[in-house]
């Protein structure tokens, strides 16, 4: 584990025999549907780190901005539907690159761009922005749309990677700068939904009919030009990135139920066990595999199914430690910044009366 993360996050990481439980420094207000909190990102103020801003998506509620005390300083609504019978904007994931925040608009299948400063955020998306995956506006309303998102700088170019809801596809987009900002899709990659097990049998990820095993949590490692992507019912992929495409993906850790027989129950609308787990999966992640964030040489992953976080050594994906954040359940997204700010922000997915975000200063 990196010394900065170990010393900053918790001496417990090094010394505690049991799983550490970290207490949040502050929590944000609680949001209720349709303003449903989901994914955070941290903007570091280059002039005064104590006036940095945390952004968080609120689904149909838009995008929220918070100060470091967890106070809401602004909420920016998702776009209205273009016609009364069309889907409205629905902000799913957010990431920050410089003074820009990129947001996946799951409702309208666009990438929206916000200019960020200490006062909050301002939408600077080009009005000409086109759907990422859908060929027509009618297809947008079928909601196989932009979902997970990560932003980064690869070989001198600003890029965004976004995944497709209910599909295995991810897309690489280059940022088009101007008075208003747009993104241009340059490549796509389809991850598998069927795998060959160690016993030679084929295993297909269970899901609702017509829906594939989607990716949501993603992060770009700019130091190695690598994308880490969490395919929810599969595990964590490591994928080389170039400015115009993807390299060969490698599955570097699996969820515990990888390879286990399951079937979809239409009454509960859930996948259920359909036989004993053969033990081909990993030992650390309880599906869904969700939010990913990087702290120097450590990758943090949300094990959403049992409300834990797992720290891996990036170089070889060796699990180093798992931990919980007190009173945080079923976390979707996370972001961490080390240095003068030293802040970890996680999505809190199951409060008694809604959802929100928890901040850990260290």
Structure, explained:
- 4% of the residues lie in helices and 47% in strands.
- Mean pLDDT is 94; it is low at 1-8 and 10-14.
- The strands form eight sheets. Strands 1-27-26-25-24 form a five-stranded mixed β-sheet, with no helix packed on it. Strands 17, 18, 19, 20 and 21 form a five-stranded antiparallel β-sheet that branches.
- Strand 25 (298-303) and strand 26 form a beta hairpin.
- The longest helix is centred in the first third of the chain and has 7 residues, at 3-9.
- The protein is globular and about 55 Å long.
- The chain has helices spanning 3-9, 12-15, 137-140, and strands at 21-22, 26-27, 40-43, 53-57, 63-66, 72-76, 91-97, 100-105, 110-117, 120-123, 146-154, 157-164, 169-176, 182-190, 194-196, 202-204, 215-221, 226-231, 235-242, 245-246, 250-254, 262-265, 270-273, 289-295, 298-303, 308-313, 318-325, 334-337, 343-351, 354-361.
- It has a single domain, classed as 6 Propeller (Neuraminidase), CATH 2.120.10.
- It is mainly beta and 362 residues long.
Question: What descriptive keywords fit this protein?
Answer:
362 residues; mainly beta; five-stranded mixed β-sheet; five-stranded antiparallel β-sheet; 4% helix; disordered N terminus
């Amino acid at each position: 584990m990196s010394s900065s993360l170990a010393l900053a996050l918790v001496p417990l990481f090094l010394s505690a025999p049991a799983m550490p439980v970290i207490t949040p420094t502050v929590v944000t207000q609680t949001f209720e549907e349709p303003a449903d909190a989901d994914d955070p990102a941290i903007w570091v103020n280059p002039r005064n780190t104590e006036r940095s801003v945390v952004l968080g998506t609120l689904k149909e509620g838009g995008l929220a901005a918070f100060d470091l005390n967890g106070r809401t300083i602004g909420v920016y609504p998702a776009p209205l539907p273009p016609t009364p019978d069309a889907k409205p904007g629905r902000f799913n994931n957010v990431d920050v690159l410089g003074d820009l925040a990129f947001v996946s608009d799951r409702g309208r299948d666009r990438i929206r761009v916000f200019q960020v400063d200490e006062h909050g955020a301002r939408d600077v998306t080009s009005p000409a922005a086109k759907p990422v995956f859908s060929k027509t506006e009618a297809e947008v309303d079928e909601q196989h749309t932009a979902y997970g998102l990560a932003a980064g700088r690869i070989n001198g170019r600003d890029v965004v990677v976004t995944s497709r809801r209910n599909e295995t596809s991810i897309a690489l987009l280059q940022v088009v700068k101007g008075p208003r900002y747009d993104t241009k899709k340059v490549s796509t990659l389809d991850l598998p939904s069927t795998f060959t097990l160690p016993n030679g049998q084929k295993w297909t990820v269970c899901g609702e009919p017509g829906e594939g095993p989607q990716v949501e949590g993603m992060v770009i490692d700019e130091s190695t030009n690598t994308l880490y992507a969490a395919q929810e019912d599969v595990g964590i992929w490591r994928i080389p990135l170039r400015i115009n495409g993807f390299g060969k993906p490698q599955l570097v850790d699996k969820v515990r139920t990888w390879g286990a027989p399951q079937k979809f129950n239409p009454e509960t609308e859930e996948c259920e066990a359909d036989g004993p787990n053969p033990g081909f999966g990993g030992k650390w992640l309880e599906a869904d595999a969700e939010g990913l964030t990087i702290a120097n040489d450590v990758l943090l992953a949300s094990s959403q199914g049992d409300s834990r976080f797992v720290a891996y050594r990036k170089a070889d994906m060796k699990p180093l430690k798992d931990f919980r954040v007190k009173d945080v359940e079923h976390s979707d997204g996370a972001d961490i910044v080390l240095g003068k700010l030293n802040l970890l922000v996680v999505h809190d997915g199951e409060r008694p009366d809604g959802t929100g975000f928890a901040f850990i200063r260290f």
